[in-house]
Amino acid sequence: MPPAILGVLLAPGRVWALQVHPEPEGLIAHQLAHLFFATTMAVLAYWLHVNRFVRERGWRLIQISCLLFLLWNIGAFAGHWAAAHLPDDIFVGEPGSLSRKVLSGQSVWVLPYLIFHLDHLICVPAILCLLLGIRSLYVKVLDEDGAGF
Amino acid sequence: MEAYPLAPVVLTDFIGSALMIVLSCACVRYAFLLRRARPANVLWTYLLAFSLALAAFSVSRGVGHLVGQLLSFAGKGDVWKALLPYSGAVNTLMFVVVGSITLFFQRVQIINREILNDKRDLEKASSEVIRLNRDLQSLVEARTRQLSASEVRYRALFEGSIDVVFIVDDTGRFEDLNQAGVRTLGYESPEELIGVLSLKDVFVKERDYDALAYQLRTHGFVRDRECLLMSRNGDEILVLLGMSAKAPDAHVKGGYHGIAKDITARKRMERQLQRADRLASLGQISAGIAHEINNPLGIILGYAQLIMRGCDKGTQGYEDVRTIERQAQNCRRIVGDLLKFARAADTRKTVVNVNQCLRDLLALLARQFESAGIMVEARLDPELPAVVGDTDKIKQVFMNLLVNAKQAITGSGRIGIETAHDVESGQICVIISDTGVGIPEDLADKVFDPFFTTKPVGEGTGLGLSVSYGIIHDHGGTIELNSEVGKGTVFTIQLPARVDESAKNG
After folding, report:
1. What strand order describes the sheet that includes B478-484?
2. Where would I find the H helices in chain A?
3. Contact status, residue B325 vs residue B301, Cβ threshold 8 Å
4. Nearest CA in chain A to B54
5. Which of A47, B260, B431, B501 is the most buried (most CB within 10 A)?
6. What mean pLDDT is predicted for residues B369-385?
7. Which CATH number fits domain B161-262: 3.10.50.40, 3.40.50.720, 3.30.450.20, 3.60.15.10?
8. CA B467 to CA B474: how far, in whole Å?
9. In this structure, what are the phi and psi dihedrals at residue B421, rounded to the nearest 5 degrees?
10. How far apart are CA B174 and CA B109, in angstroms?
């Protein structure tokens, strides 16, 4: 047996049996999830286009919803990125109060932070389009069945 | 230092999160309704799964944000800080779930397209099957109508035929028989024959049937074969029979159909015509001979009478000449009868009361019949019309027949005399029957021939019936004979009734 292996066996040090997950890993995983989500939305929008589903109003609304979710994911990705670059002391005021502010001039990420954190202005219309799209499909099915709506 | 308020961000986040939860739940509801409306559509199942994943994402994210904002407002920022990584992790997971489900779309839509294609093909095949079924149904209906019409047509032909049409199985048993067949064979309904009797049962002679069966087996058909059938009441029916196998190659098994034409009447008429022809020829010959004999006979008779005048009565010479004269007289009578047979004798036609003629003759013969033990039954039609004819000759006919009847009866017996009037044919009918020995079938056609007799030599000339035949035909009538050995003989005379109805017999 080689002396090195014998040495390891007789005098073990720190063994890296499990990988350590330091703090930024969660953010990176979240950001990758956003990118994955955005990609799938792009793919779905593309499939709806190439399969000519978009000729129907319902699927067209769903395609718009996908594109909005794609935008939202990009925005969210950018928002998270901007937040990660802001120091904690840039926020002033009582935490949890509406009077809380963010100081400008200390970081170039302040404005992107504020803009991209208004992401609901995109994701709410996105899910609204999805709702209208599914509803439209449902109405069409009812019409086909002659039940009306 | 300039600062930006975070209030718009917070409010947007708060309201937006709430809206996301509400709207995503609405998405789930409609997706669920959609799937319930079309459970077989896999796209709606996909859409429901997609909506559920988005709802889960919206709820996890929205609730997280709402709780975070509320905790912050409540001054529990530390708590939110502790919960924040979990909320973020769940959100991350939801993103992956939504994205993963999204990527199934293409596969789902391919499956859905294939299902739809299969469904379309199935519907097309189904409609094709329905169309074929409808076509087949209409075809069957049309064919059934044709068959029904054909059945009606051929059934009418079968039942309406005046000839006997029948179907028998391979053993000869009747399978079907038309009404004419039923009537001809003397039955009431086809059921009395079908499945009950076989062709063999209605054949008079078994060997005739065996010969027929042999020919059917060997050739598969028979054509125009004369066969003697027997009706239910025992009457013999002469038929012209044609039979063939139902199928050309199945003449051994499978049965036969046939047509039998009743030719009894035709055959009888043919025999009558043949007899009439023969008797007419004989009459011509007889008339010629009679005329030729009559003249020398007259001379012989004249000279015989002249010689007799020159001889003394009682001498041998006188007796010899008298014998010559007597025999010549006999010959003259025979010649006279031949002339009557040949219808060459003079006829003095007047109105004749046939019933009266018969009464006169019965009065004349009554003692003879009585002494011979013969009972006479006379049924004379009081409404019998008169006929136009020679009374003496008509009486001679009746006399011949009555004498023949008496001679035919050995021991006691019965003679029947009947007269009737057939208004339709305008004929009167005289039937003279006896219960005598009868005439064999092979002799029946010869009884009207001149000099034909079954009596011993010297007891009859064989001219009686020939003369009767000649007289009746001279009066435009007919004389028929029906006889059965051992049972008796029936002579039927038909004479045209006088048109003037005022001279009816009493």
Report:
1. B374-379, B413-422, B427-434, B488-496, B478-484
2. 3-10, 24-50, 57-84, 110-116, 120-145
3. yes
4. A127
5. B260
6. 90
7. 3.30.450.20
8. 10
9. -120, 125
10. 73
CA distance A147 to B36: 14
Condensed to tens digits (0 to 9), the pLDDT of residues B445-500 reads: 788 887 777 777 666 677 888 888 888 988 889 998 888 888 899 999 999 998 76
CB contact under 8 A, B88 and A26: yes
H or E element that contains B296: helix B264-310
Q: How far apart are CA B66 and CA B429, in angstroms?
A: 134
* Residue B68, C-beta contacts closer than 8 angstroms, at least 6 positions apart: B80, B83, B84, B87
Sign of CA dihedral B199, B205, B207, B208: negative
Tokens of B490: 């029936």
Residue bearing tokens 């993963």: B100
Residues of A in contact with B85 (CB under 8 A): 26
Nearest to A101 among B5, B58, B74 (CB): B5
- The identity of residue A16, as a single letter, is W
Domain-by-domain residue ranges, chain B?
7-103, 161-262, 268-341, 350-496
Asked if residues B350 and B386 have their Cβ atoms less than 8 Å apart, the reply is no
| Statement: residue B263 has pLDDT above 60 | yes
Give the helix/strand (H/E) hosting B80. helix B77-103
Could you tell me which residues come within 8 angstroms of residue B406 by beta carbon, excluding any fewer than 6 positions away?
B365, B368, B369, B372, B374, B415, B434
CATH class, domain B350-496, is: alpha beta
The reply to whether residue B20 touches residue A120, judged by beta carbons under 8 angstroms, is yes
C-alpha span between A77 and B450 (Å, rounded): 147
CA B134/CA B402 separation, integer angstroms: 82
Whether the complex's predicted ipTM surpasses the cut of 0.90: no
Q: Is the entire prediction scored with pTM above 0.80?
A: no
In the CATH scheme, what architecture does the domain B268-341 have?
Answer: Orthogonal Bundle (1.10)
Residues of chain B above pLDDT 70, percent? 96
Q: How many CA atoms lie within 13 A of B456 on its CB side?
A: 1
Q: Do B20 and A118 touch (CB under 8 A)?
A: no
**Which tens digits make up the pLDDT trace of B185-235?**
999 988 988 988 989 999 998 899 999 988 888 888 899 999 999 999 888
Q: CA-CA distance, B25 to B57, in Å (whole number)? A: 11
Q: Do B1 and A103 touch (CB under 8 A)?
A: yes
Residues in chain A with CB shorter than 8 Å from the CB of B20 are: 120, 123-124, 127
